[in-house]
Amino acid sequence: MNSANTTTRTASGGCLCGAVRYEVHGPLRSVVNCHCGQCRRAHGHFAAYTKCARGALRLVADRTLKWYVSSATARRGFCDRCGSSLFWEPVHEAGVSIAAGTLDSPTGLHTSQQIFVDAAADYYDIDESLPRLPGSMSR
């Protein structure tokens, strides 16, 4: 993670029903908006993720946390009670992405870029003020 785009502090968050709670003890990357087809289906819209080192994430309550292997390269963590999408964890990286909307406020974070913009849905406009990475990962 680029230290210029991170904030270091203890953060906390969880799902809608409260059955999954977590803490982050370490830096969080700035937020990246992902427009890929998988994120749009998992979130119902584009996804906004921050990221931390895998060892910095501590699950405080996880009795309803389930994992779905969404591709050969990643899995997604969600609450099987309320359906909240919480995590995106790549297989071959040392970090875990956290759905920014699940963090308790204030987050102190800002959105720094967007990815897979070529796969964006046709019902919204891309934020032209943010740097973008092309790509068209679907389903």
Would you kindly provide a written description of the structure presented here, covering whatever features stand out?
The chain is mainly beta and 139 residues long. It has one domain: Metal Binding Protein, Guanine Nucleotide Exchange Factor, Chain A (Beta Complex). Helix content is 5%, strand content 47%. The protein has one helix and eleven strands; from the N terminus they run βββαββββββββ. β1 (6-14) and β2 (20-29) form a beta hairpin. The longest helix is centred in the N-terminal third of the chain and has 7 residues, at 37-43. The relative contact order is 0.25. The model has no long low-confidence stretch (mean pLDDT 91).
Helix and strand arrangement:
Elements: E1 6-14, E2 20-29, E3 31-34, H1 37-43, E4 47-53, E5 57-62, E6 65-69, E7 74-79, E8 85-90, E9 95-99, E10 111-115, E11 132-133
Parallel strand pairs: 3-10, 10-11
Antiparallel strand pairs: 1-2, 2-5, 3-4, 4-9, 6-7, 7-8, 8-9
Throw out a few tags for this protein:
139 residues, mainly beta, Metal Binding Protein, Guanine Nucleotide Exchange Factor, Chain A, eight-stranded mixed sheet, three-stranded antiparallel sheet, 47% strand
Summarize the structure.
By secondary structure, the chain is mainly beta. The protein has one helix at residues 37-43; strands spanning 6-14, 20-29, 31-34, 47-53, 57-62, 65-69, 74-79, 85-90, 95-99, 111-115, 132-133.
Question: How much helical structure, as a percent, in the residues?
Answer: under 10%
Shape assignment? globular
Name of the CATH class: Mainly Beta
- Unreliable stretches (pLDDT < 50, length at least 5) are none
Q: What's the number of structural domains?
A: 1
- Derived from helix and strand composition plus strand pairing, the structural class reads mainly beta
Side by side, the strands of the main sheet go: 6-7-8-9-4-3-10-11
The separation of the N and C termini measures 27 Å
The largest sheet, given as strand count, sense and whether it forms a barrel, is: 8 strands, mixed
What's the architecture in CATH terms? Beta Complex
Mean pLDDT: 91
Alpha-carbon Rg, integer: 14 Å
Compressed to H and E, one letter per element, the order equals EEEHEEEEEEEE
